[in-house]
Structure formats: structure tokens, C-alpha cells
Design brief:
- The protein is of the alpha/beta class.
- It has one domain: Acetylglutamate kinase-like (Carbamate kinase, 3-Layer(aba) Sandwich), CATH 3.40.1160.10.
- Helices cover 37% and strands 23% of the residues.
- The chain has nine helices and 17 strands.
- An eight-stranded mixed sheet has the order 3-9-2-1-12-16-17-15, with helices on both faces.
- Helix 2 packs across helix 3, helix 6 packs parallel to helix 8 and helix 7 packs antiparallel against helix 8.
- The radius of gyration is 20 Å and the shape is globular.
- The mean pLDDT is 96.
- Bound molecules: adenosine-5'-diphosphate and magnesium ion (MG).
- Adenosine-5'-diphosphate (ADP) binds next to strand 13.
């Protein structure tokens, strides 16, 4: 550990939904722990090779499960506010990753500890997305329930393509990571940190300059990019369900990409190659990271992280 103190190489690794839930038949908590362990094998290898890693992760399905439990037990128990769902899932998923890394470190004789930071992320209370909430969360409802919830709980609800009604919330841009100094200090001290889970718990500053949680969802790729910029990470890795990024994805003209410059990323983004809500936010996040001084980003799947670091697969995105 000693020789790394002088020249730390810090990577933010954003793990996608597939690192916890591989498919709909494997989504229990023990299933999620098993899936986390698989991804942590690759993270531990990165650490063994000298990287200091900050792990970030999504929480969409897990928040969905909590909301569903609330729904089913409404006759007896209180609702869990969305910011609190964020905190609950950061803790639970953080635990899965902490334990997986503990066990992996022990097997390899790595003298390190992983620790989760429950992370608040400041958003602008005037973010335009609050005027136009569009991120669906939770299950479907009938029209009457939707109308009731709108009245009693002030929910925004929309009709979703003929499938029923759903609650929608704002998806504001992350402005500032509240616990950034704690995260930075832990990384500097050699801890493997798990942070900004689910994009962070969205908070706004009220008129008294106090933080208060809001019912919103921050995109995890955007929050991870902000974290990478904030702690001046040398590398931003997005681990998802595809080995590489493609042009004309899922069409006969599909073309896998080994390397992209910032300029090309912007152009292909504008040309609509990266789907909204999946690859789109990842490329946007990478663009932001590179524009704010980031050096390089990699997009690949968990099992190819090591090879991508060696340059033999994955999509590498650099400033030029
Ligand atoms: P995560 O949970 O990791 O955020 P997402 O499902 O949100 O995963 O985004 C990754 C998915 O984006 C891939 O599994 C793939 O299906 C999809 N995708 C959309 N456009 C592209 C593209 N141009 N190249 C590669 N994958 C793409
Ligand atoms: Mg996603």
C-alpha cells in the first residue's frame, strides 16, 4: 500500500443495473448479493493492479420494490418518501458491495476496506425538470387511484401509453456532492468507497439554507460523472450490459466502437446514436466529465473491465 501513497490513480466505476439484477427471475436479496460479488471480482482486480476505486451504482428496481411494499401495506403502514428510499437502497446495496469486496480482498490478501458513504446530491430547486416531471417510478395504477394520490399526496401522475397511470418525478441535474470532502479523504486514506448510489439522494437548499430531501431521481451516470470531476479522478469507467458502444445499435448497420474522441461523441450523440434513458445519459455524462478536465473514460461490461483497461476491448473515450 505504501508505494501507492505518492501516486494514486483514482477511478470512478459506475456499475449498472445488471451488476445487481441479472434478470427478472434473479432479483431477491441473496440473488443481488451473488450478482454484486461477480462484479466485485473485477473491481478487486483493478484494485490489485493499483487503482483506487470509488464505486457508484444504480437503484431503480430496488426503489421500485420499496415503493411496491408501501403500496401493498398502505392500510397499515406509512409511505416511504422517495429521498428515504434512496437512503435505504444506498445502505442496502452499499452493504452488498462492502461485503463482496471484503470477501474478495480477503481471498487475495489485499489489506483494504470498503466503506459506503450515504450521499446527498444538491440539485437546483429551480431546475426546469421540476416543472416537467417525466421520470416514471413505481408501479401502474388505475385512473381513480392516480387521481386520489394526486390529491392526497401531491403526486404528479401521467397516463403511460395505454398501460395505466404512473407516478412521475423530476430528474434534475446534479450540482454538488454534499459529502465530497469525506469521500475524497477516504480515498486519500486508501479506502475503497461506495458513493452516490442511485445518483445520490436529491436535496435542495431551502430559504433558510438548510438541506431538504426532494421527490426526484438523479441520473446515476450524471452523478457519477460529477463525482469523478469533483474528486479529480484519472479514469471514469461505466460498467453496463454491453461490451462496447455502437453506432446504429441493434440495426443491420451496427458498428462497434473501440475509441471515440470528445468531438465524435458529441457528433454521434447529436445524430441520435445513443438511446435516451440508456446509452444517451452515459455518453452525456462522459462528455461532461471530459469537458471538465477528465482524461479518459471507458464503457464496457463487468467481465471485460480488465481487458478494457489493457486496451483490448471496451469503448475508450478521450479528449482527442
Ligand atoms: P445501466 O443499468 O448500466 O445504466 P442501461 O440499460 O440504462 O444500463 O444502458 C445500457 C444499455 O444501453 C445497453 O445494455 C444497450 O441495450 C443500450 N444501448 C442503447 N444505445 C446503445 C448504443 N448505441 N450502443 C450500445 N448500447 C446501447
Ligand atoms: Mg441506465
Amino acid at each position: 500500500m505504501q508505494e501507492n501513497v505518492l501516486k494514486r490513480r483514482v477511478a470512478v466505476v459506475a456499475v449498472g443495473g445488471n451488476s445487481l439484477i441479472t434478470d427478472a427471475r434473479h432479483q431477491t436479496v441473496p440473488d443481488q448479493i451473488r450478482a454484486a460479488r461477480k462484479t466485485c471480482v473485477h473491481i478487486a482486480t483493478m484494485i490489485e493492479r493499483g487503482w483506487d476505486v470509488v464505486v457508484t451504482h444504480g437503484n431503480g428496481p430496488q426503489v421500485g420494490f420499496i415503493l411496491r411494499r408501501s403500496e401493498l401495506s398502505r392500510h397499515e403502514l406509512h409511505d416511504v418518501p422517495l429521498d428515504s428510499c434512496g437512503a435505504d437502497t444506498q445502505g442496502a446495496i452499499g452493504y452488498d458491495i462492502q461485503q463482496s469486496l471484503y470477501n474478495e480482498f480477503r481471498l487475495r490478501g489485499i489489506a483494504k476496506q470498503a466503506v459506503t458513504v450515504v450521499t446527498q446530491v444538491l440539485v437546483d430547486r429551480n431546475d426546469p425538470s421540476f416543472k416537467n416531471p417525466s421520470k416514471p417510478i413505481g408501479g401502474f395504477m388505475d385512473e381513480q387511484t392516480a387521481a386520489d394520490r394526486r390529491k392526497s399526496a401531491n403526486w404528479d401522475v401521467v397516463e403511460d401509453a395505454g398501460r395505466g397511470w404512473r407516478r412521475v418525478v423530476a430528474s434534475p441535474l446534479p450540482k454538488e456532492i454534499i459529502e465530497r470532502d469525506a469521500i475524497r479523504t477516504l480515498v486519500d486514506q486508501g479506502f475503497t468507497v461506495i458513493a452516490v448510489g442511485g445518483g445520490g439522494i436529491p436535496v435542495v437548499e431551502n430559504d433558510q439554507h438548510e438541506l431538504v430531501g426532494v421527490a426526484a431521481v438523479i441520473d446515476k451516470d450524471h452523478a457519477s460523472a460529477l463525482l469523478a470531476t469533483t474528486i479529480d479522478a484519472d479514469l471514469f469507467v461505466i460498467s453496463t450490459a454491453v461490451e462496447k458502444v455502437a453506432l446504429n445499435y441493434n440495426t443491420p448497420d451496427q458498428q462497434w466502437l473501440d475509441h471515440l474522441t470528445l468531438e465524435q461523441a458529441r457528433r454521434y450523440m447529436a445524430e441520435g446514436h445513443f438511446a435516451k434513458g440508456s446509452m444517451g445519459p452515459k455518453i452525456e455524462a462522459v462528455i461532461r466529465y471530459l469537458e471538465h478536465g477528465g482524461r479518459q473514460a471507458l464503457i464496457t461490461n463487468p467481465e471485460n473491465v480488465e481487458k478494457a483497461l489493457e486496451g483490448t476491448t471496451g469503448t475508450r473515450i478521450t479528449r482527442d
